[in-house]
């Protein structure tokens, strides 16, 4: 019984460690803008308010403001509405383009949570 409990405990710790390594690091938009090369093609998480959005047929871009700066986020999951509070994770890259327009430093959305009021 003692060996079983020890094995379950070890499995729980290992599982927790794997979950923690899979989660992207939360950062701020100002840190990304200050050093884009550091975040290029890296998974990050941001929390902010949608200030602008453009989309059609489930794809689009939206501008996220976290209080430290703004960044454009490209999505294939439909754009959130202006004023929505969202948490988003994905990869940062330069040269974000949508609809023939270049948005500079941006983020490709992988996951999003929207807070409803």
Task: Please tell me about this protein's structure.
- The protein is α+β, with helices and mostly antiparallel strands.
- The chain has a single domain (25-115), classed as Beta Barrel (OB fold (Dihydrolipoamide Acetyltransferase, E2P)).
- Helices cover 26% and strands 44% of the residues.
- The protein has helices at residues 2-22, 29-34, 36-39; strands spanning 25-26, 43-56, 59-65, 70-75, 85-93, 97-98, 101-102, 106-115.
- It has a 5-stranded mixed barrel.
- The radius of gyration is 18 Å and the shape is globular.
- The N and C termini lie far apart (49 Å).
- The relative contact order is 0.18.
Quick tags:
117 residues, alpha+beta, OB fold (Dihydrolipoamide Acetyltransferase, E2P), five-stranded mixed beta barrel, two-stranded antiparallel ribbon, 8 strands, globular, disordered N terminus
**Major sheet size, sense and barrel closure:** 5 strands, mixed, barrel
| Structural domain tally | 1
Gross morphology is globular
Give the proportion of residues in helices.
25-40%
**Percentage of residues in DSSP E strands:** 35-45%
CATH topology: OB fold (Dihydrolipoamide Acetyltransferase, E2P)
What is the CATH-assigned architecture?
Answer: Beta Barrel
The span between the termini is 49 Å
By CATH, the superfamily comes out as Nucleic acid-binding proteins
Radius of gyration from CA coordinates: 18 Å
Q: H/E order of the elements?
A: HEHHEEEEEEE
Mean pLDDT: 80
Number of E-state strands: 8
Number of helices: 3
Class inferred from helices and paired strands: alpha+beta
Spans with pLDDT under 50 lasting ≥5 residues? Answer: 1-21
Strand order of the largest sheet: 2-3-4-8-5
């Amino acid at each position: 019984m003692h060996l079983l409990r020890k094995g379950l405990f070890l499995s729980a710790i290992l599982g927790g460690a794997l979950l923690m390594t899979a989660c992207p690091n939360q950062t701020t938009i100002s840190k990304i803008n200050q050093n884009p090369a550091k975040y290029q093609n890296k998974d990050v998480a941001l929390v902010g308010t949608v200030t602008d959005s453009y989309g059609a047929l489930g794809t689009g871009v939206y501008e996220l403001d976290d209080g430290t700066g703004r960044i454009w986020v490209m999505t294939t999951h439909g754009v959130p509405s202006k004023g929505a509070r969202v948490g988003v994770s994905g990869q940062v890259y330069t040269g974000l383009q949508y609809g023939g327009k270049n948005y500079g430093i941006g983020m490709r959305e992988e996951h999003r949570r929207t807070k409803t009021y």
